């Protein structure tokens, strides 16, 4: 069986940042009220301006984002485990979906929680390019996946050396209007968080990161929670990026650098638990979900 792993993607190097932002904003121009005459020129200007800031983040991370590389590693390991041929197709970064000359049988979005802003955005582009294809909708409630998340947090606890940390489960934010239209994204993440943390005796809460632009976004933000915890007398904080599978700009820069510096300023001991995308719990989850689809159980 031939399986397409898809994701929005990410710029691997600073040189790719502007084009990535442009592709994304142009694709969602109706949603951001930029579907107007001259939209390409307007959006290109926005992308140029935004890219000047984002490129600096890459310098701090060593010059690249590993997201596409790490997703490729997942694809190779799952392919070896299952015997299926797996390729990548990204919406806004290479390898681009529109450059994919390959006939595949099923789409596997690398978003464990379904959202109209992520999973569906990829599926819309796939339909435009390849027509209707069967797909796996979401897989966050797989027990092995829940165990993978918990294992990453437990490993972070050991690595931090903290004795009694407060855990923040960080989720990429969305405009609140998206959820109000019935998107299950927030509800699914809250249920996932409860199931991950239920066997532990740690204090925890879910917070949001990566808000972009104006408007009402899902909150509270990680920054607001850190400030509140300091006021409440908390000393140790572990953050885990619940909505991600692999390291990327939003983990390596936003969480590690921006929020790490805020925590230091507040006098909090801070550690961000890492994402082990090679762990067998994650690989087996994806293999199981592919098997469920093959057997007509998905």
Description of the structure:
With 298 residues, the chain is of the alpha/beta class. It has two domains: 2-138 and 282-294, Rossmann fold, CATH 3.40.50.1400; 143-272, Rossmann fold (3-Layer(aba) Sandwich). The chain is built from ten helices and seven strands. It has helices at 17-27, 39-60, 67-82, 119-130, 143-160, 176-180, 185-197, 222-231, 249-266, 280-294, and strands at 2-7, 85-90, 106-109, 166-172, 204-209, 236-241, 269-272. Helix 9 (249-266) links the parallel strand 6 and strand 7. Helix 1 packs across helix 2 (39-60) and helix 3 (67-82) crosses helix 10 (280-294). The longest helix has 22 residues, at 39-60. It starts with a strand and ends with a helix. The model has no long low-confidence stretch (mean pLDDT 95).
CA radius of gyration is 19 Å
- Strand percentage lies at 5-15%
Query: Remind me, CATH topology of the largest domain?
Result: Rossmann fold
User: How many strands?
Assistant: 7
The gross shape turns out to be globular
Derived from helix and strand composition plus strand pairing, the structural class reads alpha/beta
Q: State the order of secondary-structure elements, H for helix, E for strand.
A: EHHHEEHHEHHEHEHEH
